[in-house]
Amino acid sequence: MADTLEFNEIYQEVKGSMNDGRLRLSRQGVIFKNSKTGKVDNIQASELAEGVWRRVALGHGLKLLTKNGHVYKYDGFRESEFDKLSDFFKAHYRLELAEKDLCVKGWNWGTVRFGGQLLSFDIGEQPVFEIPLSNVSQCTTGKNEVTLEFHQNDDAEVSLMEVRFYVPPTQEDGVDPVEAFAQNVLSKADVIQATGDAICIFRELQCLTPRGRYDIRIYPTFLHLHGKTFDYKIPYTTVLRLFLLPHKDQRQMFFVISLDPPIKQGQTRYHFLILLFSKDEDISLTLNMNEEEVEKRFEGRLTKNMSGSLYEMVSRVMKALVNRKITVPGNFQGHSGAQCITCSYKASSGLLYPLERGFIYVHKPPVHIRFDEISFVNFARGTTTTRSFDFEIETKQGTQYTFSSIEREEYGKLFDFVNAKKLNIKNRGLKEGMKQSYDEYADSDEDQHDAYLERMKEEGKIREENANDSSDGSGEETDESFNPGEEDDDVAEEFDSNASASSSSGDGDSDRDEKKPAKKAKIVKDRKPRKKQLESKKGKDPNAPKRPMSAYMLWLNANREKIKSDHPGISITDLSKKAGELWKAMSKEKKEEWDRKAEDARRDYEKAMKEYSVGSKSESSKTERSKKKKKKQEKQMKGKVEKKGATSKSLSSTKSPAKNMSESFKSKEFVSSDESSSGESKKEDSEEEGVASLPPSSEDSASGSD
Predict the structure, then answer these.
(1) Global model pTM greater than 0.85
(2) CB 490: neighbour CB atoms within 10 A?
(3) How confident is the model at residue 273 (pLDDT cuts 50, 70, 90)?
């Protein structure tokens, strides 16, 4: 026979909910590891008193009773596994695995038996139901009636609130059956009552989660947080782990208490209690117990009088009362020598601590990820800059955690740590896993939706569409006018392309003459796009329908003022981040409401555009006719000007030959090697000469007559 038996997908019943995990039976005892919390229940073989096999809702179940009265229930076994388990119990634990079925008669009267920490309601010899007394939070009595109230579990879909028992009166004198029933329940119930004095009190401790300053009162079975607004009572049985983490500045310490189930305040759940201490703060502590009680209770782990750093005293007392080890950072050291890495998670900056068996992030929101629940990790390039990278962790349940904005210098240290812990590294980037790929996130779950990124993409699309609506060349030409450094290249191209048109022989041109036509060409090029730009701006109708907004932008416009009122003095960037977080946390049903509004807006836009396009066609035909008419008038005016120039030329040709010779003569400085000039200058010269030649010709004729 095998020395061990292992079962996967076994469910442990804890406070009304079924927690899945793995069960292993060995010679030494029974071990169950919770898949969700990683908590391990270890039952020694010598402690086992009874084993019961019975049929339950999830197949078949195993109930184990220990000698000190504890009860453990495990469901999810197959009927065929009974023989194997029965033989194992006989061989290794020397126990008979008894088969007991529950009574299903449906009667509501019977006998109540108290056995250890279990209340069993029986009909005859068969149990109808059992109540673990550790689940009872309150017990009240009335006339012939006892009411039990239970602790609520957030993981359970349906919770049992209370059970009432009718206790008939008896003829026995001096014994009240109702009070006897209540005392049996209260002796084993998990009822938190702040009776008696606290063992010790720590005053005004700074608490990050839940935020505020609290007095911590240490009682034998629970921890009492007393603040100005709220009070919390935390049983030590709900404490999963303790962490003591040094801050990156080496002047402060975090003390983290992991809780399951979490403490509640309204709809908020706090899975972690985070205390912040200064290393320089010292305290002298005296326990409210005599030395014999301290020695008997804590077995040398605590003394009546202690002194030292405040964080050391708190962690030492908690370790002794909770009876759990304190987890501290291992051998990891970052680039700056600290045992943590600065990063961001969900738009809040914090510290990521690589531990010996997991990662923990503090502080908003706190996250603890064990190595055994990690499917793979990934190193990805940051979305905004190459100076940082993102560290992604995906669990076996499919949950993804992204720690962003990690300094590039930390990459080597973190990569070596992950390799040493033999974690699976899955690179999804193009360059050594440092480039983040967003395609894989397109169809991901709602938790991975990045509202801020989606909004940026939506605004980018709107800007791109608006740019396409304007004239094709306007974007390039506008950029050209704002690039003075590229002017020389543009001038050279313009001058070379028009060289044959602007000059007939360029052999003897001076530098100054070369620059003039080039500059003229550049000015012409600068003026044209501005005209086009103005025309395109004038052509854009302000009465055209506006483009519809996305679902996120509609929601943001409706809730912007509310966010501002909830967070007075919030900056624009912080408001965008906060809005992104709220949109991300919104349920799918609420998002669908805004999606419908966005779809309605899009339909209205398309309808308005159809109506607008029909009206704009008639407008455009009118403007085309007016443009043609204007061009015709311009041509007629140009013909008249040319006719006038021709008449002025004929008049200038009637001048005397002597006058023509004198006026045609030019001095050396006015003679250029290039005789040709632009058409405009010829026309202007000829007009000026014609106008100037008229008075002298009339004077000459007058003198001749004399």
Answers:
(1) no
(2) 16
(3) very high
